[in-house]
């Protein structure tokens, strides 16, 4: 279906996964860097997340006495689910090598699976904070995942497809008229959702040391070594996936349509530039807002839901999309 | 004489005298300049109306201003009530034992505001461009909000804030409606010929798109309807009327509300020329009936004299609106005539009520009793004016209400006419109850002072309006009748 | 009717205005509300520039400059200053919950779409999709003014309503003509001054600018 040969498909898939694994920690480092700079701190270097991962991977693992042994597999499954989700996001070439109609919905499912695995891991250790964090995280999932699906439908409305590459290709073919009120509303909804799904401010503070306010960090308090590395790495990949989906749909131009070296290089460069730009914006935003009380996060969920539904109504009721 | 630019002089009179009062050295000169300005306004309006009666309509080359018989009616009642209010103010603000003594500085400010208020209302009447009409009406809100809050009491601040917020929100809606109307003219006339000039729109009316005009009407009715005091948008009205200085209450009720309904009438004149378009009629009837019924019940339970009169204004705006809704030569004539009658009667009552309140030191109707015995002249005016307002023959309000009811029963909208009749009966009872209690009851032990020493100006003001209340019901001067007939034709086409 | 990229861009900027209006429905900080209004006004200035460019109406650049200077910078600054001077607490107090507000915002959009959608002559007007958006912004501003307790928030709501009206006036009718626009602008300026005066006076008389305390006059 995709038009790529078998060898090409394999090579492209591999490159996607490697790109995601490699670029994820870098973006996390970049956001941290932006935050520390705008707070007038020196902060850790750009590559600090890689060093952390290397350090954790080099350590042995210790399991809690109450652990059932589930933790040995759950972190791997969660990480694997994220890696499996990588090809469903449009990267720097189109069409996607294994794309099929509705693949974005599979993406939502895989992200939910990894969230579930993290929560299970946290529960398995049997500590209070793990239970609290996993409750909160599942609650956030229940709030934002339906909206995620709505946003996908809103994005898919102009092309009539929920396949990532079809949406992006359609958008790119429209040129500047791709930008529309409906797209803007849906993307705003997704931006709110992105903050919640990736545990950024004002929903969750990734840099917090106060256990009571934690969501994600509370879940990983009991982990160390390889398991912590897998979860952290997975979290950075998750962040990268959602950010890339956002910029790919909002700015669908410049992807390579053939395997020419020049076009691939250009597309890769553009991809990195878009992602860096988005990370800079996010870092700036995070320095400006404070964490909201957990119960107010529901307000954000409603806002996101309303924006997504508004986008759909614009398309179908007045045809402004 | 008829070729002088009366139209501009009418606007200039209050504007220049506002400037004059600002620089006037003492109380006497402030008063004199203000009265002169209002008087000049009335005189110029009379000349202007004469001009309109002879040539039909007057306009200036830029299309912003135009005066026809309809504007003439409004100008006439505005300038008349304006003069009465300004003259009354001379005494009202000068009384030493008035509840709120006023320094020279504040006196100046008061007259500047009230004259500017007159100016903006004149501008409403003369505006030909619907955008300018909006600007002028918003101008009236701003100036009159300052007047409503003129006494810095808690209640006055509250009333003026409510007034400002509600009417501004309303007028934002009206601006939106105006823009939609412009959009409609753009859609049917093309971008180069599109216009907000009433004279153009009236001619182009049959080609306007009904859907867009309907949407525009909704916004315009909510907007100007707020300002006109249509229920349920009237909530600012009793507060503003009761807390404003008495002459300002008279101007609000008699002048400002008419300006808002005049704006709606202008729009109605456009929609009446659109074939098969009855939406405007239904809006007028709906708002009218609702206002009349709601006001009737509030009148029954009201204790404060000025709030009572304010709810009466809601009721009468409803009556006028129903008259416009009935339409036809008879209904429109009745509505326009009622505008004049209600203005004169209501202003009289507010001003006489002001005398009563100053003398009795309260506006509470339960505490006032035996006013007729204590203040024979003021009491008589109140009694006659109150009866007139309730619609007792042979006063002018009765005549115009009768005309409107006749129009209703002779047309197909007899249900509305029955409802109107019902409301009128309730109001009649309520008003009679309040009047007899306040005016006729036994004289209270303490309380009534005699009126302050200086009352020449207040008497003059009442003397200006009272004959109209009584006289117009018995005898309609030919020029006025001609003006009204001509105004009906302006609306009806 | 297919739109050129310019008109499409116009609609996108209008959607930015809509999003700011929605976000202001869920925010609970007064200062953030003012910031959102400033952002919204900046977008309005953008609309004016786009219209001026697309329809070759150079006078609208002047309008754009006025909006950018007055509504996007001066008015928000004055508002923040008033909040500081009057010591208004920074929380937005509301009669209805944030979530209800957000849903009401969606309701405003749906209402506007249902009312405006079927209008036939809109097909002949470029960028007609702006009409439902501007109606929505007006309705949201009204909702904001009506359901928040503080007089301060009422002012912000009214300002947002005015932006909604400007959006329609600018983008659909390319302005009402210079004289009228100046008149409207002057009126709004005076409104701001008078409103400010009353806010200070309210503080004097009531020691608070909570519109909720205005309860003396009822019935």
Descriptive overview:
The complex is a heterotrimer of chains A (321), B (493) and C (219). Chain A is an all-alpha fold and 321 residues long. Chain A has one domain (6-318). Chain A contains eleven helices and no strands. In chain A, helix 1 packs parallel to helix 10 and helix 7 (181-197) runs antiparallel to helix 9. Chain A starts with 5 loop residues before the first helix and ends with a helix. The mean pLDDT of chain A is 86. With 493 residues, chain B is mainly alpha-helical. Chain B has one domain. Helix content of chain B is 77%, strand content 1%. In chain B, helix 3 packs parallel to helix 13 (328-360) and helix 8 (210-228) runs antiparallel to helix 10 (246-272). The longest helix of chain B has 36 residues, at 154-189. The two termini of chain B are 29 Å apart. Chain C has one domain. Chain C is built from seven helices and no strands. The longest helix of chain C has 29 residues, at 178-206. The radius of gyration of chain C is 18 Å and the shape is globular. The mean pLDDT of chain C is 82. The chains are: A mainly alpha (321), B mainly alpha (493), C mainly alpha (219). Chains in contact: A-C, B-C.
The total number of structural domains of chain B is 1
Number of helices of chain B: 19
General form of chain B: globular
- How many domains make up the coordinates of chain C? 1
Compute the CA-based radius of gyration of chain B: 21 Å
Oligomer: heterotrimer
Helix content of chain C: over 70%
Total helical elements of chain C: 7
How many DSSP E strands of chain C?
Answer: 0
Radius of gyration of chain C: 18 Å
The proportion of residues forming helix of chain B, as a percent range, comes to over 70%
Uncertain segments of chain B are: none
Mean pLDDT, all residues of chain C: 82
The first-to-last residue Cα distance of chain C is 53 Å
- The averaged pLDDT of chain B comes out at 89
Largest sheet of chain B: 2 strands, antiparallel
Judged by helices, strands and strand pairing, the structural class of chain B is mainly alpha
């Amino acid at each position: 279906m995709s038009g790529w040969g078998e060898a090409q498909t394999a090579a492209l898939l591999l490159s996607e996964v490697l790109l995601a694994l490699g670029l994820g920690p870098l973006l996390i480092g970049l956001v941290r860097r932006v935050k520390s700079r705008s707070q007038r701190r020196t902060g850790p270097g750009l590559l600090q997340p890689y060093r952390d991962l290397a350090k954790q991977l080099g350590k042995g693992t210790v399991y809690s006495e109450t652990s059932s042994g589930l933790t040995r597999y759950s972190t791997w499954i969660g990480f694997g689910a994220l890696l499996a989700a990588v090809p469903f996001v449009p990267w720097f070439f189109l069409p996607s090598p294994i794309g099929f109609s509705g693949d974005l919905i599979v993406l939502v499912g895989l992200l939910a699976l990894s969230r579930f695995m993290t929560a299970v891991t946290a529960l398995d250790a049997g500590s209070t904070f793990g239970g609290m964090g996993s409750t909160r995280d599942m609650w956030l999932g229940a709030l934002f995942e339906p909206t995620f699906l709505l946003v996908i439908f809103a994005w898919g409305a102009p092309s009539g497809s929920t396949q990532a590459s079809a949406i992006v290709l359609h958008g790119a073919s429209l040129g500047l008229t791709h930008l529309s009120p409906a797209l803007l509303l849906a993307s705003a909804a997704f931006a709110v959702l992105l903050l919640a799904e990736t545990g950024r401010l004002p929903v969750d503070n990734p840099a917090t040391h106060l256990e009571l306010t934690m969501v994600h960090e509370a879940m990983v308090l009991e982990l160390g070594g390889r398991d912590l590395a897998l979860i952290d790495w997975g979290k950075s990949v998750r962040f990268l996936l959602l950010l890339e989906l956002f910029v790919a749909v909002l700015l669908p131009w410049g992807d390579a349509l053939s395997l020419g070296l020049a076009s691939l290089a250009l597309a890769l460069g553009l991809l990195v530039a878009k992602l860096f730009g988005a990370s800079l914006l996010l870092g700036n935003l995070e320095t400006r807002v404070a964490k909201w009380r957990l119960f107010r996060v529901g307000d954000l969920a409603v806002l996101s839901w309303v924006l997504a539904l508004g986008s759909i109504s614009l398309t179908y009721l007045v045809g402004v999309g | 004489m008829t070729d002088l630019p009366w139209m501009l002089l009418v606007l200039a009179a209050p504007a220049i005298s506002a400037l004059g009062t600002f620089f006037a050295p003492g109380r006497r000169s402030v008063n004199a300049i203000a009265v002169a300005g209002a008087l000049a306004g009335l005189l110029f309006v009379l000349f202007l109306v004469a001009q309109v009666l002879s040539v039909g309509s007057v306009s200036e080359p830029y299309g912003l201003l135009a005066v026809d018989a309809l504007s003439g009616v409004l100008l006439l009642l505005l300038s008349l009530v304006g003069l009465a209010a300004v003259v009354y103010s001379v005494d009202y603000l000068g009384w030493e034992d008035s509840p709120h003594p006023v320094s020279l500085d504040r006196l100046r400010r008061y007259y500047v505001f009230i004259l500017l208020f007159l100016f903006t209302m004149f501008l409403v009447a003369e505006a030909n461009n619907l955008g300018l009409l909006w600007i002028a009406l918003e101008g009236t809100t701003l100036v009159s909000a300052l007047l409503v809050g003129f006494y810095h009491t808690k209640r006055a601040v509250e009333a003026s804030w409510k007034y400002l917020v509600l009417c501004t929100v309303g007028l934002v809606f009206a601006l939106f409606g105006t823009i939609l109307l412009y959009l409609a003219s753009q859609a049917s006339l093309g971008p180069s010929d599109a216009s907000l000039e009433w004279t153009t729109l009236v001619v182009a009316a049959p080609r306007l798109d009904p859907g867009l005009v309907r949407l525009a009407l909704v916004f315009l009715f909510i907007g100007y309807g707020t300002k006109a005091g249509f229920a349920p948008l009237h909530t600012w009205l009793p507060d503003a009327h009761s807390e404003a200085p008495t002459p300002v209450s008279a101007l609000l009720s008699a002048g400002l509300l008419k300006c808002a309904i005049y704006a709606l009438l202008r729009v109605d004149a456009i929609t009446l020329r659109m074939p098969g378009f009855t939406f405007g009629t239904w809006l007028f009837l709906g708002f009218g009936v609702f206002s009349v019924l709601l006001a009737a019940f509030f009148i029954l339970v009201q204790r404060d004299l000025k709030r009572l009169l304010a709810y009466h204004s809601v009721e009468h705006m409803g009556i006028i609106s129903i008259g416009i809704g009935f339409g036809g030569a008879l209904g429109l004539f009745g509505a326009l005539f009622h505008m004049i009658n209600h203005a004169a009667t209501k202003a009289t009552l507010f001003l006489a009520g002001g005398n009563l309140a100053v003398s009795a030191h309260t506006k509470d109707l339960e505490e006032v009793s035996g006013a007729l015995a204590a203040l024979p002249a003021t009491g008589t005016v109140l009694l006659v004016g109150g009866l007139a307002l309730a619609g007792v023959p042979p006063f002018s309000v009765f005549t115009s209400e009768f005309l409107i009811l006749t129009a209703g029963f002779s047309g197909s909208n007899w249900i509305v006419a029955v409802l109107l009749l019902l409301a009128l009966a309730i109001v009649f009872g309520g008003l009679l109850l309040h009047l007899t209690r306040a005016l006729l009851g036994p004289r209270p032990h303490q309380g009534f002072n005699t009126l302050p020493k200086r009352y020449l100006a207040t008497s003059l003001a009442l003397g200006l309006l009272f004959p109209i209340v009584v006289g117009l019901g018995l005898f309609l001067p030919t020029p006025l009748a001609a003006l009204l007939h001509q105004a009906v034709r302006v609306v009806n086409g | 009717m297919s739109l050129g990229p310019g008109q499409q861009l116009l609609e996108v900027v209008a959607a930015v205005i809509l999003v700011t209006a929605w976000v202001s429905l869920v925010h609970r900080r007064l200062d953030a509300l003012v910031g959102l209004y400033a952002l919204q006004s900046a977008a309005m200035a953008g609309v004016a520039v786009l219209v001026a460019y697309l329809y070759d109406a150079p006078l609208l650049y002047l309008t754009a400059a006025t909006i950018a200077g007055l509504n996007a910078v001066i008015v928000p600054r004055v508002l923040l200053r008033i909040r500081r001077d009057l010591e208004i607490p920074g929380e937005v107090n509301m009669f209805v919950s944030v979530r209800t507000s957000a849903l009401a915002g969606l309701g405003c959009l749906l209402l506007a779409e249902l009312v405006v959608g079927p209008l036939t002559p809109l097909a002949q007007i470029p960028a007609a999709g702006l009409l439902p958006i501007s109606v929505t912004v007006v309705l949201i501003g009204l909702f904001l003014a009506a359901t928040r307790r503080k007089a301060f928030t009422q002012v912000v709501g009214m300002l947002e309503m005015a932006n909604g009206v400007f959006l329609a006036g600018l983008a659909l009718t390319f302005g009402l003509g210079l004289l009228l626009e100046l008149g409207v602008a002057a009126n709004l300026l005076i409104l701001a001054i008078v409103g400010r005066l009353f806010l200070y006076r309210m503080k004097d008389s009531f020691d608070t600018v909570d519109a909720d305390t205005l309860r003396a006059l009822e019935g």
